[in-house]
Amino acid sequence: MAIFNVHINDLPPEGKQFVGEIRPAVFHDLSPDSPTPCSPTKFDVLVSLDKDSVLVEGVVETEFELECSRCLEKFNWKLRLDPYFSEEPREGRSNLDLTEFLREDILLALPGYPHCEDSTDSKRVCPAAGKFADASEYAPISDEAPSTPQNDLWAALDGLKGRIDK
Ligand SMILES: [Zn+2]
Predict the structure, then answer these.
(1) DSSP letter assigned to residue 93
(2) Domain housing 112
(3) Which residue of 8, 15, 88, 99 shows the fewest CB atoms closer than 10 Å?
């Protein structure tokens, strides 16, 4: 198991490049219905110090198997953070656990309510699409202008006018 422990005190002024893979198991302490990682997380990042902050920047790539919250089918979801950038206060620490650092950010990037439409396989169509709207998605927002009582009144008057003009 590779632990990417960055010794902050030893960082050269220009920073240090870290390239590697995080094994999927670091995500396994999630709850059973959580997304399943299906590939190691690859990263290529530069760790540097900026005054009192630790900066991590570069590219992070991973792949998860997610479950559509609508049709419950599983699909693959690739995440590529390019550019990846993260900044944390140093707070006097001398080490940075890069694995934990990246893990947190990947968890934040995962969709809370995954849908087939999130799939990175662009041909994927949700079998349940249009059958029903689930709670997280249902919102009374439409492309049309909202129908206010006043609009209805004018529409009614227009209709009336039309009839009088004839
Ligand atoms: Zn679906």
Answers:
(1) -
(2) 5-129
(3) 88
- Closest residue by Cα to residue 100 from 116, 121, 86: 86
Ligand 1 centre and the CA of 39: distance in Å? 22
Q: How far is CA 93 from CA 8, 30, 49, 53, 100, in A?
A: 8, 27, 12, 11, 15
Residue 85 lies in a domain: yes
Per-residue pLDDT tens digits of the chain, which is 166 residues long? 456 889 999 999 999 999 999 988 888 765 666 678 889 999 999 999 998 999 999 999 999 999 999 999 999 999 999 999 999 999 988 999 999 899 989 988 988 889 998 998 878 889 887 765 555 555 555 555 555 556 666 666 676 666 665 5
Structural domain includes residue 154: no
Q: How far is the CA of 146 from the centre of ligand 1 (A)?
A: 29
For the beta carbon of residue 66, count every other beta carbon within 10 angstroms: 22
Q: Report the number of distinct structural domains present in the chain.
A: 1
| Rounded distance from Cα 27 to ligand 1 centre (Å) | 23
Q: How far is the CA of 38 from the centre of ligand 1 (A)?
A: 19
Q: What is the 15 CA–ligand 1 centroid distance (Å)?
A: 43
Task: Please check whether residue 155 lies inside any domain of the structure.
Answer: no
pTM for the model stands at: 0.71
Ligand 1 centroid–CA 82 distance in Å is 27
